[in-house]
């Protein structure tokens, strides 16, 4: 299973060729071209051809390329999959499935993709799935969804539809709830646990107040604190803060590298199971924590600081 960089996941209407062109040139790690909520019902059939053209025409600069189909119970979903994969399956990374409520929703998409891959001569399993949980039933089924297919690469939270489904007393997705704490903490953490148990990534949904960059940064920071890999962005102005929040700091990255080096020396040279690094005892659990920092940092393009600077940072 590929582990792709998804710090910033840019939503883009599949019916708007100009916006798709701009999305391809953006600094987002992933772009998903939307055939669902961002497309008016009468525009959905025509949007498929526009999405195929955009996928085949633009230089996506190494981005993760995804198409969000319509809900599997809709009249559009099967044709969405068939036309997108037939037209651009060789340049498509994943299909995003919205409003997933159970493992059967994922099985439907998995089998449709498998049939098309065989028909078109693609490697079986080459197109991944991103599962979006957006209501109470989906949250209750989060564990079975996460394990529903080997194709699944992410679980993604959909806060707007979830808020509507739960009848929350708010008209936007922002930090405006009169509640002592993060009202979405349980949801975010449950999805994170399900994703990590299945060995896949977990992505937070959008922050709708696109001009409130500090509010976006705070929301992204809460998701990052729970181990999330990234967050949706709805506007180019949200891309930079998302990439920053979900990238380890240089100081943390350097410390992780030092922990890994110190632990390797302790276990392989000195043959000890634990060792001191500064004032901190490190052991196998420390290695595991440091490993995920190093992997995230290297995926984001970080390199270790010169040894003297890194040592000073850790000591400080």
UniProtKB/TrEMBL annotation:
Cofactor requirement: Mg(2+)
Regions annotated as coiled coil: none
Cross-referenced InterPro entries: Aldolase/citrate-lyase_domain, Citrate_lyase_beta/mcl1/mcl2, Pyrv/PenolPyrv_kinase-like_dom, Pyrv_kinase-like_dom_sf
Keywords: Lyase, Magnesium, Metal-binding
A Pfam family hit: HpcH_HpaI
Top-level division of the source organism's lineage: Bacteria
Binding-site list for substrate: 68, 134
Residue span(s) of domain HpcH/HpaI aldolase/citrate lyase: 7-236
Keyword Magnesium assigned: yes
GO molecular function: lyase activity; magnesium ion binding
Signal peptide: none
Residues bound to Mg(2+): 134, 161
Gene Ontology biological process terms in this record: oxaloacetate metabolic process
Protein's name according to its UniProt entry: CoA ester lyase
Organism placement in taxonomy: Bacteria, Bacillati, Candidatus Dormiibacterota, Candidatus Dormibacteria, Candidatus Aeolococcales
């Amino acid at each position: 299973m590929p582990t792709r960089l998804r710090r910033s996941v840019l939503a883009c209407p599949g019916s708007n060729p100009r916006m798709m062109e701009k999305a391809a040139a953006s600094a987002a790690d992933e772009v998903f071209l939307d055939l669902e909520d961002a497309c008016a019902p009468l525009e959905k059939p025509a949007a498929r051809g526009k999405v195929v053209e955009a996928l085949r025409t633009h230089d996506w600069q190494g981005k993760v390329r995804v198409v969000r189909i319509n809900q599997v119970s809709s009249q559009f979903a099967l044709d969405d999959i068939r036309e997108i994969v037939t037209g651009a399956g060789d340049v498509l990374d994943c299909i995003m499935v919205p409003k997933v409520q159970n493992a059967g929703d994922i099985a439907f998409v998995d089998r449709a993709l498998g049939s098309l891959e065989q028909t078109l001569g693609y490697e079986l399993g080459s197109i991944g799935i991103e599962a979006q949980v957006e209501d109470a039933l989906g949250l209750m089924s989060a564990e079975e969804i996460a394990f529903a297919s080997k194709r699944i690469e992410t679980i993604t939270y959909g806060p707007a539809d979830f808020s509507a489904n739960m009848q929350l007393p708010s008209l936007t997705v922002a930090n405006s709830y009169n509640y002592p704490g993060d009202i979405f903490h349980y949801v975010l953490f449950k999805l994170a646990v399900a994703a990590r148990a299945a060995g896949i990534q977990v992505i937070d949904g959008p922050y709708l107040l696109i001009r409130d960059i500090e509010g976006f940064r705070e929301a992204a920071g809460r998701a990052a604190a729970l181990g999330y890999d990234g967050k949706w962005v709805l506007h180019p102005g949200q891309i930079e803060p998302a990439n920053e929040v979900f990238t380890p700091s240089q100081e943390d990255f350097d410390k992780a590298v030092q922990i890994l080096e110190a632990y390797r020396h302790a276990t392989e040279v000195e043959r000890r199971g634990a060792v001191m690094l500064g004032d901190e005892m490190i052991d196998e659990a420390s290695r595991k924590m440091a490993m995920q920092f190093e992997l995230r940092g290297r995926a984001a393009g970080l390199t270790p600081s010169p040894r003297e600077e890194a040592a000073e940072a850790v000591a400080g």
